[in-house]
Amino acid sequence: MTLQITDLTVRIGGVPVVDGVDLRVGDAQRLGIIGESGSGKTLTALASVGLLPLGAQVGGSIRWNGRELAGLHDRDLARIRGRDIGVVFQEPATALDPIRTVGAQIGDSLRLHYGLGRREVRRRVLRAAEQVRLPDPERLLRRYPHELSGGQRQRVAIAQAVIARPALLIADEPTTALDVTVQAGVLDLFDDLVADTGMSLVFISHDISLVARMARDVLVMSHGRVVEAGPADRLLSAPDHPVTQGLVRAARATGWCPREEEVA
Predict the structure, then answer these.
(1) In this structure, are residues 59 and 78 in contact, taking their beta carbons and an 8 Å threshold?
(2) Is residue 107 in some structural domain?
(3) To bridge 257 with a disulfide, which of 12, 74, 115, 209 should be the other Cys (CB 3.0-4.6 Å)?
(4) Which sign, positive or negative, has the C-alpha torsion 164, 183, 190, 26?
(5) Strands 67-68 and 57-64
(6) Chain-centre distance of CA 25, in angstroms?
(7) How buried is 136 (Cβ within 10 angstroms: 0-12 exposed, 13-18 middle, 19+ buried)?
């Protein structure tokens, strides 16, 4: 499995918001993308699965297992999303349909990509709900998004993204809206899912300590460009670029990021 992005550019309203980004994700790799708000990290990820805002102009190459995705018809991209590449969004409340049960929504990928019958879909949905540690899944799957807590909605979104067993999972700021305790549980869940399934992970955040916890390799973005890249432990202990240095200082100020002597 390989996602190869080369010289990616994204323009919105004629303004370049992603400019010349290169990245590669291989088998069972954990890649982190870090940057402040507006750095282009989310748009880079969304470009890879064809989910950019209407009117966005994309240049460069996005290849999935050698197949060019840039310029591909949305119908063809829809066959890849969910089946090959799963996406977990920052705020699941905006990604989930408020008038359908969460169980029905978790099963969408199975019906779309594999045409499974009702009984088999229900069996797999229940297994996915158990896998992401939803409490009392038989009851919870019959509920609607507004009836769940923020942490439960995020777990539903994760189940929805991984139920078709994609080779790559993109998690875009998946813990931003959660309190610290729930956040830790969701991060542990990502760890277990990646370890159990062997899928690759692209973890996006503005918090370098979270990215360093979840990823071995990190890209730092600013103003649409990659300004620094390297192993997570090196970026924590010896950041080169002023943007990375600022992110490390901010994380250390909250106590979430180890100091240089602790990393060494």
Answers:
(1) no
(2) yes
(3) 209
(4) positive
(5) antiparallel
(6) 13
(7) exposed
Listing from the earlier edge strand, what are the strands of the sheet with 3-12?
15-25, 3-12, 57-64, 67-68
Tokens for 28, please give them: 């069972």
What 3-state DSSP class applies to 87? Answer: strand
For residue 73, the one-letter residue type is H
The tokens describing 46, both together, are 């969304």
Instruction: Establish if 109 belongs to a structural domain.
Output: yes
Domain membership flag for residue 28 = no
Tokens 């969304």, residue located: 46
Query: Which domain covers residue 122, as residue numbers?
Result: 91-165
Give residue-wise pLDDT tens across range 77-123.
Answer: 988 998 999 999 887 777 799 999 999 999 999 998 998 889 999 99
Decide if 101 is inside a domain.
yes
Helix (H) or strand (E) holding 65, with range, is: none
Q: Residue 75 belongs to what H/E stretch?
A: helix 74-80
